[in-house]
Design brief:
Helices cover 45% and strands 11% of the residues. By secondary structure, it is an alpha+beta fold. It has two domains: 217 residues, Butyryl-CoA Dehydrogenase, subunit A, domain 2 (Beta Barrel), CATH 2.40.110.10; 127 residues, no CATH class. It has a seven-stranded mixed beta sheet with strand order 5-6-2-1-3-4-7. Helix 10 packs across helix 12. It is elongated.
Length: 367
């Protein structure tokens, strides 16, 4: 792939993500039902250059903030959660290169990303004592290069990748990431994922049999954890964004189903409600669901802002802040008392009516 248009800022990134989500939504149910892998959709994702938005500005990327990155995942996840999960590891390992890559490694790999190349994932292993018990070995050869041996599971994105970052332990037992081309000799990706959900992520097995790795493709990932870091926070933020997107997409489809396909319950019909969307119990439930979905989105945005802020500030207080003598708990007590002022149950009704039927809330000052 040649370098084409590069996304310039957060506004363009969000617009591209929304456009992709609209496209991905069209075939999502059919892909899931048939377990049809989204090869064409991922090519469209690469062509959009959305995968390059976290490349640093020094190398020509938009270097978007975490709150923008979270929204980039939430929007497509509302359309197709499997598709949204596939590039999660891509951004995680771009972040590893930002943190631990040499200037030469960053120049090369960020150039690849800007050209639309995709990173996959060969991280987790099955049958070990715990998730950090990595047994894949990165053995150094006399000429300074390496060979990889091991088996990886849950390798989301590997089947579709141009580069597969492999988490392995070197001869001194420290963690490294070896970036291996998808077509490297000795590397096999097996499409054996048969999970109940996320059916088209192809999160199968990667087998590594004496896979050659040049020295300049290896990054010392163990150094990431020797000081304050946000590696895990960013990875978990993207998972949370996918979950928030699933909630948004599910609610939207449930609304459409009730409006167009659902009959009223007979007791509701007996009281004069012509459609299921007029059922007061359904209205209440949809109001509650809408509140929870909005709350999840708000929490996601707040978490993303916290990740951004944490680059400069990691911690402000500890357990001592709960001491009665400090009086800090008064803020929680004040908030709990104030929220009892007006009944929330009628606010839920008005939200539910608007979500299901488009009914505007009444014009008074108690909403």
């Amino acid at each position: 792939m040649s370098v084409a248009h590069v996304i310039a800022d957060y506004a363009e990134a969000l617009a591209v993500a929304a456009e992709l989500a609209a496209h991905f939504r069209k075939g999502a149910a059919e892909r899931d039902a048939r377990r049809r892998l989204p090869h064409a959709e991922l090519e469209r994702l690469s062509a959009s250059r959305l995968l390059a938005v976290t490349v640093t500005a020094r190398f020509g990327g938009a270097d978007v903030r975490a709150d923008t990155l979270a929204e980039i995942f939430r929007l497509p996840a509302a359309a197709d959660a499997s598709l949204a999960q596939i590039p999660q590891s891509h951004f995680v390992y771009v972040n590893v290169l930002r943190r631990q890559g040499t200037d030469e490694q960053q120049e090369f790999f960020f150039g690849e990303v800007l050209a639309g190349k995709r990173f996959g994932n060969a991280q987790s292993e099955a049958g070990t004592q715990h998730v950090q018990d990595i047994r894949t070995r990165l053995a150094r050869l006399p000429d300074g290069s390496y060979v990889l041996d091991g088996v990886k599971h849950y390798s989301t994105g590997a089947l579709f990748a141009h580069w597969i970052p492999v988490l392995a332990r070197s001869d001194d037992d420290t963690l490294h990431v070896a970036n291996v081309p998808r077509d490297a000799p000795g590397l096999t990706v097996v499409d054996d994922w048969d999970g109940m959900g996320q059916r088209t992520t192809a999160s199968g097995t990667v087998r590594l049999a004496s896979v050659p790795v040049p020295a300049d493709r290896v990054v010392p990932h163990h150094l990431t954890y020797q000081g304050p870091q946000l590696h895990g926070a960013v990875a978990q933020l993207l998972h949370a964004a996918i979950d928030a997107g699933i909630a948004s997409g599910a609610l939207a489809e449930a609304v459409e189903f009730v409006r167009t396909k659902s009959r009223p319950w007979f007791e509701s019909a007996a009281e004069g409600h012509a459609t299921a969307a007029e059922d007061p119990l359904l209205i209440q439930r949809f109001g509650e669901l809408a509140i929870r979905e909005r709350a999840a989105e708000a929490l996601l945005r707040e978490a993303a802002r916290a990740v951004d802020d944490a680059r400069a500030l990691f911690e402000v207080s500890g357990t001592r802040s709960a001491l009665d003598s400090l009086g800090l708990h008064r803020h929680w007590r004040d908030a709990r008392t104030h929220t009892l002022h007006d009944p929330a149950r009628w606010k839920v009704q008005h939200i539910g009516r608007h979500v299901l039927n488009g009914t505007r809330p009444p014009r008074h000052g108690l909403l």
